[in-house]
Amino acid sequence: MTRNDSIKKLRDQLVRRRDALHRALEGDLSLLRELHQEKTGDVLDAAADTVQDELNSQLIEAESRELGAINDAIARFDADCFGNCEGCGKPIPITRLRAIPYATDCIDCRRKAETRTGGGSSVLWNRVFDNAEVDSV
Predict the structure, then answer these.
(1) Where are the zinc fingers (dksA C4-type) (predicted)?
(2) Whole-prediction pTM value?
(3) Do 83 and 91 contact (CB within 8 A), yes or no?
(4) At residue 69, does pLDDT exceed 90?
(5) What is the 8-class DSSP label of residue 1?
(6) DSSP secondary-structure letter at 135?
(7) Bridge partners, residue 84, by sequence
(8) 90 within domain boundaries
(9) Cβ atoms within 10 A of the Cβ of 73, count?
(10) Is 32:53 a contact under the CB 8 Å cutoff?
(11) In whole angstroms, what is the distance from residue 53 CA to residue 32 CA?
């Protein structure tokens, strides 16, 4: 499969994901509205509702961010610049685009950006617990 064919297939995936996110957001928002209209029973019910509201709003926020990234990626496709790194201008490898279809940068530029902003961490997370002390009972 050529790069252009792969990119067209990725665009179709982005459109399907965008449509699914629209449906999910509509459902999440209607559920949130519905929960706000219900009367709570007691303090514990109110606390549980507050926790559920927070979880729902965080889910909506994450879905909204992804939806924005997908819309931007579709716009880049329509502008014929989809799949090119915004940092260096080189083509983003198809394997990266398959993993993150709305990626705007290649792995090298992403690593450089994370290092500059402090987003990169020197902690080896798969080794965090290697030297951890065991709690005594």
Answers:
(1) 85-109
(2) 0.70
(3) yes
(4) yes
(5) -
(6) P
(7) 91
(8) yes
(9) 23
(10) yes
(11) 7
Sign, Cα dihedral of 88, 94, 98, 101: positive
Q: What is the CATH number of the domain that holds 76?
A: 1.20.120.910
In a domain, 136, yes or no: no
3-class secondary-structure state, position 84: strand
* Residue found by looking up tokens 């915004």 in the block: 86
Residues 84 and 91 sit within 8 Å (Cβ to Cβ): yes
**How many domains, the chain?**
1
- Taking only the tens place, the pLDDT of each residue in 20-60 is 998 888 887 777 677 667 666 777 877 887 887 788 888 88
| Helix/strand/coil for 100 | coil
Q: Is residue 54 assigned to a domain?
A: yes
The parent domain of residue 49 ranges over 3-121
**Residue 66: which residues within 8 A CB-CB, separation 6 or more?**
17, 21, 102
